[in-house]
What does this fold into?
Amino acid sequence: MNKKNLIFTLFASFALGQIMPANAANPVESDYYQIDRIPIPDGVVLETSGIEMLPNGKLAVCGRRGNVYVLSNPFGKPEDIKWTLYAEGLHEPLNLAFTDGWLYCTQRGELTRMKDMDGDDRADIFETVNDGWGITGDYHEYAFGTRPDPNGDMWIVLCLTGSFSSQIDYRGWCLRITKEGELIPTASGIRSPGGIGLNHLGEAFYADNQGPWNGSSSLKHIPPGSFQGHPGGWKWFDLDAVKKVMKRPENEPKSESRYPVERERVKELTPPALVFPHGVLGNSTSGFAYDGNGKFGPFKNQLLVCDQTFSVVNRGFLEKINGVYQGAAFSFLKGFGSGNISAYMHPSGTLFIGGTDRGWGARGGKRFAIDRVTWKNKVPFEIHEMRAKPDGFELTFTHEVDAKTASDLKSYSMSAYTYIYQSKYGSPVVDKLNPEILGAEVTGPKTVRVTVDKLTKGHVHELQAKGVRSLDNKPILHPIGYYTLNEIPPAEVN
It folds into this structure.
């Protein structure tokens, strides 16, 4: 080797040595959040589908096979948690909610309440609260429920019979069950929910999965009287109970269209608040939770949304523009044991996630699991909020940004796309655009205003901010935001 080559080799080795430790030191999710797998006793096939805390500090969990268990000391060492069979023989329960001294359970065919009268962690009384919807025996007829809303109502979403039709009462509908047990038809257009819950304001959202009239899985707001997109259950508008509270939409949606077009025709149509691009953030959006007091990190009141197939939890920031919910979805946390479908956030800031892989498979690898997540009291460098503006987006970060990289246009790129609103199963990505980044102005220690040449109503705007660094030179842990732009904000007046 000649002297020149030797010098080059030594220089390259030195440079590589400088680069490698920096890359190796880049933060990872486990620096900020710890996932503990709770061991499931031998012989227990749980397929965790509902999670709720009891007043005595024990955790109630139910599974798709029909059993409910009580877990003692759920915040202790996982191997020391004791399991007690609370109830058995239920019909695929998919939610638990404790209120007014009763443990409520949404089964496939009814809303049930149970009570342990003698304190032995075993239910002694079972009562039917409401069973006003039908089942045919079709595998697809799942029923998901919520905890009580501010009025005391529990919201229930009912899967269609299969993916395309509604063969018995209220399949493809959202219902509310009052404290007195009355059934109130609330919204039509449901296809295949993976979960339903309330945000910090007590408003109901549900996860619908890719399929007919759903180009990609999404999280949808459910205003009473709304149409959620799939007309397969419209026959039940003829029921007297429905006629008392809502009317059939004047127009039916046209297949092979787009959401903005059909929203003009079908006024009741509510667009997805968060689209989770299929095959990118997940394949099967499901249950969600939120941290209401900031004890789980910097994302207070944002939604932490499960995906069954990918065995992950994504994060959703929501805002309301022109009266319509929309917002940005981000990757958040991976490493769960099975296909996540249920989520419960304890006020202490402990998140419980449960899942199953039966029916669809899941990346987690286990047939069923229940995991516990805690925050390590370190704040990751993330895009905290992504807000729509008339000419682009305002990004707020969890840490102060490095002004040089944050103002560099090369730190960003954007694409925009949508899905066909159609009666066929799913949709490819269509109508692809590449908005040009025109400006990136650092407007505060943690805030950047990104302007683009064009926003497109109804498109997912995928913003990559891979070049942005924090003030202490950390990369963004999850640098891509997927913003569902249902409405473009009105022009700002100075």
